[in-house]
Amino acid sequence: MLRELVFDIDMTDYDEIRTCCSGKEICGRCWAYISAAVEVLDPALREEFGFKHLLWVYSGRRGIHCWVSDQAALALTDDERRTLLSYLEVIKGGKEMAKKVNVRSTQLGKLSSLHPSLRESYDRLSGRFVEIVLEDQKCFDKKEGGWEDLLKLIPRQETVNALREKWEADPDRPSKGKWGDFMKLRNADKSGILEAAAEDIILQYTYPRLDAEVSKHRNHLLKAPFCIHPATENPRVKRWPL
């Protein structure tokens, strides 16, 4: 059975890191997360897998689909699709799991560097992190669901304690200022632990959040491109470049 390889990015998977909307709601501000995701996934599919025929389509409600129609993609089995997805998937874990990026091994007591392909993604996303997470969404402005979530991703307790004390004494400190506080401590750390943590945090807040079930199975039902979404009556139109 031949079937396009499809990737689905749904904004509901970003609810924990977007402050402008939630649930089925979507706006231009949270669409920036989708834009950043496409800027990473599109070159990965083209440059690392050699796919050429990619169609990015608005889902009609709260996300975007990528339809890959190269002959090699059409012929992929379910097992092969799962393997390909596992290579691209970085964000893993439900709401109960604080740290969703676990991409490093430990070598001789030191954390490994990012895989070269993931390093390229990180380089693309680091600037977007500042624009989207710090400046627009202001994800770390408030305590609950904000900077406390950030502290959960920092592996060194003395760093967490120092930052918590500073931010509780200055509750109106903006997200960009809080991130700057963490960067100062990261720069002073010689072990590389905080540097790795900072990279993983940027990936957790900006890397594509893929709906795995859509990509893994050829029999997964999807509405075709260019049709009308029955609930919203929005057309499923091409949305790339964004």
From TrEMBL:
InterPro entries: DNA_primase_S. Pfam families: DNA_primase_S. GO terms for biological process: DNA replication, synthesis of primer. GO terms for molecular function: DNA-directed RNA polymerase activity. PANTHER family: DNA PRIMASE SMALL SUBUNIT. Belongs to the eukaryotic-type primase small subunit family. This is Uncharacterized protein.
